[in-house]
Amino acid sequence: MPRPRLLILIVAYNAEKTISQVLARVPHQLAAEYDVEVLVLDDSSQDRTFEESQVARREGALPFPLHVLFNPVNQGYGGNQKLGYHFAIERGFDFVALVHGDGQYAPECLPDLVRPLQEGRADAVFGSRMLEKGGARRGGMPLYKFVGNRILSWFQNRMLAASLSEFHSGYRVYSVAALKKVPFELNTNDFHFDTEIIVQFMLAGLRIAELPIPTYYGDEICRVNGLKYAWDVTKAVVVARTQQLGLLYDRRFDCTPAEGNAQYEPKLDYVSPHSEALAVVPAGARVLDLGCAGGYVGAMMRRMRGCTVTGVDKFPLGPGVELDRFVLHDLNDGFPPVNAGDYDHVLLLDVIEHLASPERFVEQLRQALKFAPDTRVIVSTANIGFMINRLMLLFGQFNYGKRGILDLTHTRLFTFDSFRRLFEQGGFRVAATRGIPGPFPLAIRNRALSRFVMRLNQWLIAAAPGLFSYQIFLVVEPLPSLEYLLDKAHQQSAIRGDAEERRVSGSRR
């Protein structure tokens, strides 16, 4: 079996006094387990960092190949890392270890940091100065940096539901295969690149391990503006968390693995279109669930209401879900091959906004129900007039996201008026209209707080539904079609004609 290929990436800027020592400290025993190469990336230094590195290369100071590159234009701390990771991907390495040219992080720890990757236990390994209690301060970390590190790391853990001991160590080893899964090239060129790539790994579901490393602070020049760095880190984490809630979209953090239909989980434990539909549909009803999204709502209606349910969706049913009938069909291809008139209720929950032409589909639905005026249609969609969207517009923001009102898969957006008009002009009568509060239990982990916010949202909806409703919920009924009315006219005429004939025949006798 070929040995794993390891690239040791040394990012350097004005490090002529330390770069030779850092190179000399790279453990030679790494060559026994890995095919090792070292890359020194000089980020347009103003001193002799490049020349000193070249001396080490010419003298063969290392038992493995040493590459020395010089950026003609300064790329910044993050930009320099991007070049190194691209080098690792382009040259087919398995792992890449990030080391600083100023000697702040001990190269002697490399064998321990790489081992979890080699054993397949992690996708990235971070050297942490906080795992050993008191070690950071004993190693010379200034008090203000220690306190700032702890506060920022606590905040980041809370926002990202993580448990890292610190987010701000620059000593890291990555799996190159994992780097290919995240868009690190979109990240900042500044110092908070390290935070952004952590967020990407977490969102992508990649495994991060931490190991203790010694702390060393010497006479190196700190080039980080602490306040700016703290602000940049905070902003990046808030944007990532906001994107998780479906309120913003940033391509950097679009790293969540594709879930197919899994994101449309049932929302039955709080006020939602799913719970409202469950309350509206009576026991024993015959239900056609169009765009059933895994079939969870229909399965619940079967269990709790004894309903007969047919589901239609372009994705298969969820694991363990059973319906009376299921039709695999994309609604954008037209109305499914079912007789809608055989059902008492038709569900269109959070479906209309995904269709290429909602108007055409509503017309097809009306045509399918032309002889079934008693069938009720239950529909829901996102409310683009929701207060959060209005506030975003006030500040010049209109960001699509992975979920929520501005879901990237939505093709059409509605207000209460435009949604009612869609069905009224399609030949339906609106029988009931309701505003649905935001899915706060999904966004807020504290149950008591989420219940309070949802109750507050419901009070506000009662006052101004167009402003405070997160979603729109309608119950509509098809107006009698011309075919239906004409058929009824023929039937009634025949009945009355027969009655008249009998009356005339009786009077003649």
Describe the protein.
The protein is of the alpha/beta class and about 500 residues long. The chain folds into 2 domains: about 5-255, Spore Coat Polysaccharide Biosynthesis Protein SpsA, Chain A (Alpha-Beta Complex); about 275-480, Rossmann fold (3-Layer(aba) Sandwich). Helices cover about 40% and strands about 15% of the residues. It contains 18 helices and 14 strands. It has helices at about 20-25, 50-60, 75-90, 110-120, 135-140, 145-160, 175-180, 195-205, 225-245, 275-280, 295-305, 360-370, 385-395, 415-425, 440-445, 445-465, 465-470, 480-509, and strands at about 5-10, 35-40, 65-70, 95-100, 125-130, 170-175, 210, 285-290, 310-315, 325-330, 345-350, 375-380, 430-435, 470-480. The strands form 2 sheets. A 7-stranded mixed sheet has the order 3-2-1-4-6-5-7, with helices on both faces. Strand 1 (about 5-10), helix 1 and strand 2 form a beta-alpha-beta unit. Helix 6 packs parallel to helix 9.
Quickly name the level 1 CATH class of the largest domain.
Alpha Beta
Main β-sheet: number of strands, strand sense, barrel status? 7 strands, mixed
Helix count from the secondary structure assignment: 18
As for the number of domains, it is 2
List low-pLDDT spans: none
The percentage of residues in β strands lies in 15-25%
How much helix, percentage-wise, in residues?
25-40%
What would you give as the CATH superfamily of the largest domain? Spore Coat Polysaccharide Biosynthesis Protein SpsA, Chain A
Secondary structure class reads: alpha/beta
CATH fold descriptor of the largest domain: Spore Coat Polysaccharide Biosynthesis Protein SpsA, Chain A
Strand order of the largest sheet: 3-2-1-4-6-5-7
Number of strands: 14
CATH architecture of the largest domain: Alpha-Beta Complex
Mean pLDDT score: 89
Radius of gyration: 32 Å
Distance between the termini: 109 Å
Shape: elongated
* Oligomeric nature of the chains: single chain
